[in-house]
Design a protein that fits this description.
Length: 449
């Protein structure tokens, strides 16, 4: 391909999401009700999720139609461009062809809008008037605020305190779209108060903020809870990314040898890769690489175990690679990657070695992000920068021509203070000590009996 980008027409937006559950050659471990120790029923989830999303969570149908109203909103920014990183290739003197799927062009700056719009739509359809959620870096909170505003739903976002302080403009963005933003842990919930009692200076974590948002939704009849990652229905909505990439690579007359994405809860990586997993299961040789921070290394150093999705043990037990729900990751700037676990679907594929994982320190990640910004122009979100770092490494080491495609999950224009810290040499690396990981994992060892 001699072009710099492949842009599809609006009519090419995929009309159905791809559900990998239909094609898994091995069963997915079911979520477990911690009280009964039995697989979860629909009724267990009904207090916090609308029925349509619960049905998508367990559906085995291969294709699920994107509702017309959701497609209409997707048309604001989708299809997103697939860009060839020609200037980066030249800088790296690589034989690799590097493409990036640019999810940063959504109104909120990341892939999170793909599921936010779908979730707000189904909630509205079932008469939900208020939604609560958590947010790490603020990308998810912004996306849900944008979507709730479109559908006229009130939204309260529990924002991990460290990001609330590090990224004040994400908070402003959520408020512009009409949401209420609360730093977490807060005094508004029992879970928040319990954490603050143990540690009044807690900088929070996604696990803690999830507890607060779930507790709030369960306590209010007009309110449901919405999660921006991890769950099957979230991943389903994100497959719109990989499906578009398939069409775009066909136009570019190329085919991937490597697919690379960063992993927090797993939704952008899964949405990007899962449409290709189908081909890999049929024998196509594609390496799929999930990239995480060394500060929160669930796939590379965690244990494949049933665990709670939140700190206060309010969620069902999920079988996943986890560092333990009490694990509070250090305050790295990639706030969206500070989650103790990883989606069950991604975890299962990792356990079967269909996907692979690697972890990087934040200093090397920011160095790669700056190279990307200098060559390609766009400043990556610190989360997306993890994937970029892996691409740089792969591209530098390949000996023959190959095709690397990376999901550029979001831009970093609200993360510029992190870049300032990096440029001023104020950032440091964190690797979580094995002893701390062992301690948090010990607490979940009884959950599987
Ligand atoms: C830009 C960006 N990329 C990636 C992630 C990680 O989330 P997930 O693994 O669900 O894609 C986040 C989370 O906030 C994010 O904001």
């Amino acid at each position: 391909m001699d072009k710099f980008k492949v842009i599809l027409a609006e009519r090419d937006i995929p009309k159905a999401w791809y559900n990998i559950q239909a094609d898994l050659p091995f069963p997915l471990y079911p979520p477990i009700n911690p009280a009964t120790k039995k697989p979860l029923g629909k009724e267990d989830l009904a207090p916090i999720f609308p029925l349509a999303l619960i049905e998508q969570e367990i559906s085995l149908k291969r294709w699920i139609d994107v509702p017309g109203d959701v497609l209409q909103i997707y048309r604001i920014w989708r299809p997103t461009p697939l860009r060839r990183a020609r200037r980066l290739e030249k800088f790296l003197k690589t034989k690799a062809r590097i493409y990036y799927k640019d999810e940063s062009v959504s109104p909120t700056g990341s892939h999170k809008a793909n599921t936010a719009v779908a979730q707000a739509y189904y909630n509205k359809k079932e008469g939900v008037r208020r939604i609560t959620t958590e947010t790490g870096a603020g990308q998810w909170g912004s996306a849900l605020s944008f979507a709730c505003n479109i559908f006229g739903i009130k939204c309260r976002v529990y924002m991990v305190r460290v990001s609330y302080e590090q990224k004040p403009f994400r908070k402003s963005l959520m408020r512009v779209w009409g949401s209420e933003v609360i730093p977490s842990p807060s005094r508004l919930t029992k879970s928040g108060r319990a954490i603050l009692k143990r540690n009044p200076n807690s900088y929070g974590s996604l696990g803690i903020a999830i507890s607060e948002a779930v507790e709030d939704a369960a306590a209010n009849n007009d309110t449901k809870y919405s999660l921006g990652s991890v769950l099957n229905h979230v991943i389903l909505h994100q497959t719109i990314i990989g499906e578009e990439v398939k069409k775009q690579l066909k136009i570019a007359k190329d085919s991937p040898d490597y697919l690379v994405g960063c992993v927090g809860g797993g939704s952008n990586f899964a949405g990007f890769c899962f449409p290709f997993v189908k081909d890999k299961l049929k024998g196509k040789n594609i390496r799929m690489i999930a990239v995480e921070p060394t500060a929160c290394p669930s796939l590379t150093r965690g244990s494949f175990h049933y665990d709670f999705g939140d700190a206060a043990q309010l969620t069902p037990l999920l079988k996943m690679f986890t560092l333990g729900h009490t694990f509070v990751p250090p305050p790295v700037h990639a706030g969206g990657l500070r989650y103790h676990g990883c989606a069950s679907l991604v975890s299962l594929l990792h356990s079967k070695k269909i996907i692979e994982a690697r972890a990087y320190h934040q200093l090397e990640v920011f160095k790669a992000a700056v190279i990307f910004a200098k060559t390609e122009g766009i400043v990556p979100a610190p989360e997306a920068a993890h994937a970029i770092k892996a691409v740089v490494d792969i591209a530098k080491n390949v000996r023959k021509p190959c095709c690397i495609v990376v999901n550029f999950s979001g831009h970093g224009y609200f993360d510029l203070s992190a870049y300032d810290n990096f440029l001023d040499k104020k950032l440091k690396n964190y690797a979580y000590p094995q002893s701390e990981i062992k301690k948090a994992l010990k607490e979940i060892s009884a959950l599987e009996q």
